[in-house]
Amino acid sequence: MKRLIGAVSAVLMVLAAMPAQAADKVVLMLNWYVYGEHAPFYYGKAKGIYAAEGIELEIQEGRGSAATTQAVAAKTADFGYVDVPTMMRAAIKGAPVIATGVLLQTSPMSAMGFADKNIRKPEDIKGKTVAITPADSMTQIWPLFLKKTGLKESDFQTVAGDGQTKLNAVINGQADLLLGYVMDQSMKIKDATGKDVYPIKFADYGINMVSSGIIANTDYVKANADLVRRFMSATTKAVEAAEKEPKAAAQSILDANPKGGKIDTLTQGFELTIPLYRTADTKGKRPFQVTDQNMTDSVNLMVEYGGLDAKAKDNPKAFYTNDYLPKSGS
């Protein structure tokens, strides 16, 4: 018995002396500078959710979905959080990228202006001035919104400029509305002016298409299947945890990046994001569980209005996979 106890003790001493297995270092590049939508990633890191899956997460700000998609395709980032339709345009041209989870399954696109201008419905846009950024994702879908709502280009004026110019146009009164995301540009305007913004959401008028999701390089996915599963498991849990504690999730952004915004608008921006996680078909399901129909509808819309090559309609499943998502309750 003494020999057995001694042997067990020796084994335990050896195990204790062995270094813990190193966590896998993973780089997640965002679609843009940090704002409320990004709260789950920072919260998941702060709460140790990624660490529990053996992942050492580095979050990098992005400079647009197209640039982040290029970084993932080139393997300079392991994962990207991007506008999935933007990723589709790159993939159809040969970029080796795929969505491993679609988080925003309802479009955040909208036409927005100051709430005190009482622009509440498409009819109210007549006679107004709309600020746009040529060739961005919203401007490409804008003609579909006009078609769905019976508006014509001649019903309003437009001014064009980059993202900041578009914001300044509304802030300074040179435009009544701009095309933007409900949880992004609206919060930037409120930060700058303290005034509430009202969005006319594209999704409320029958424009059903996906938005942001996680993407990875197809070769990276094949070579690191277990890591991809662990990353998607952690990210799913991070989103679920953040949904329950929006303000704490928003605070985690500021804890990591004190210049990342203001707590009130970061929280509000994240709260505006949460309803976009699910459609009627995915209500009650865990985050990222996009349906085949939602993706097919999105591809069809992008082909007709968003400049996506028509051959994309041949195989919508080439752009995404749910295979690496955690099962219900896991």
Automatic annotation (TrEMBL):
Coiled-coil spans in chain = none
Record-level GO BP terms: thiamine biosynthetic process
Q: Which Pfam families match?
A: NMT1
Which Gene3D superfamilies does the record associate with it? Periplasmic binding protein-like II (3.40.190.10)
Query: What keywords tag this UniProt record?
Result: Signal
Q: Which domain of life is it from?
A: Bacteria
In what residue span(s) does the SsuA/THI5-like domain sit?
Answer: 37-249
Where does the signal sequence lie?
Answer: 1-22
Keyword DNA repair set for record: no
* SUPFAM superfamilies cross-referenced by the UniProt entry: Periplasmic binding protein-like II
State the PANTHER family in the record: 4-AMINO-5-HYDROXYMETHYL-2-METHYLPYRIMIDINE PHOSPHATE SYNTHASE THI11-RELATED, RIBOFLAVIN-BINDING PROTEIN RIBY
Q: Tell me what this protein is called.
A: Nitrate ABC transporter substrate-binding protein
Q: Which organism is it from?
A: Bradyrhizobium frederickii
